[in-house]
Specification:
Main location: cytoplasm
GO cellular component, one term: cytoplasm
Structural class: alpha/beta
Family: Belongs to the transferase hexapeptide repeat family.
Number of strands: 15
Strand content: 5-15%
Order of helices and strands: HHHHEEEEEEEEEEEEEEEHH
Largest sheet: 6 strands, mixed
Subcellular location: Cytoplasm
Radius of gyration: 27 Å
EC number: 2.3.1.30
């Protein structure tokens, strides 16, 4: 048990540059306490003390702001950073070395008593506010961008962003923990930039055509409709 605690404290120090000492982690990290409470409630849940397990998980939610169902399964060295607003459903499976930020929901999409929550494999990073819904699998060492809504499986070593979640990078072999979520690819922003470029190119083509036909317009008139009568008169000349 103590070896497991030491490994989890070491993982927190590696993933959070603000962690200065072991005593600080013990006193000031709600994610650390939420997992301690969960280990106890999960043990009770598996030994048929389900009401007591739910009560302990409710106390944990009150103290830490993190709601983890006692039935959820967590691996080793999981780090919940900040943690406020995190919700983890009953049939969720979280693997080793997973990093979860505040506001994350690992939720279900059915009322059937089956495996209805996601499986998060080893080394996954889930950005703040992300929602991972349903019985899907997030592959090893994948990254879920901030605010993403993931409804389908994510392959290993991939990056998923957007609403709904889209795979924007696959087979990223680097397993280094990268906390710079602002540098993740953004397909929506890329599409907007592409449209802006096309609009500018089209405006330039319109200017060239107007110059060739001897039509002079001010900058304010370019977006207005061209008088068809003037064009016909120009053609008649």
């Amino acid at each position: 048990m103590f070896d497991r605690l030491r490994s989890e404290i070491k993982a927190i120090k590696q993933n959070d540059p603000a962690a200065r000492s072991t005593i600080e982690i013990f006193l000031c990290y709600p994610g650390f306490y939420a997992l301690l409470f969960h280990r106890l409630s999960h043990y009770l849940w598996n030994h048929s003390f389900k009401l007591l397990a739910r009560f302990i998980s409710t106390i944990s939610r009150f103290l830490t702001g993190i709601e983890i169902h006692p039935g959820a399964q967590f691996g080793e060295r999981v780090f919940i950073d900040h943690g406020m607003g995190i919700v983890v459903g009953e049939t969720t499976i979280v693997g080793d070395d997973v990093l979860i930020y505040q506001g994350v929901v690992l939720g279900g999409t059915t009322t059937q008593k089956t495996k209805r929550h996601p499986t998060i494999e080893k080394g996954v990073i889930i950005g703040a506010g992300a929602k991972v819904m349903g019985n899907i699998t997030i592959g090893e060492y994948s990254k879920i961008g901030t605010g993403a809504v993931v409804l389908k499986d994510v392959p290993p070593e991939s990056t998923c962003v957007g609403v709904p979640g889209r795979i924007v990078k696959s087979k990223n072999k680097s397993h280094i923990v990268d906390l710079e979520h602002n540098k993740l690819p953004d397909p929506v922003a890329d599409a907007i930039r592409s449209l802006e470029k096309q609009i500018k190119d089209n405006e330039e083509l319109i200017r060239i055509l107007l110059d060739k036909n001897g039509i002079c317009l001010t900058d304010g008139q370019i977006d207005e409709k061209i008088d068809c009568g003037d064009l016909l008169k120009k053609d008649g000349d």
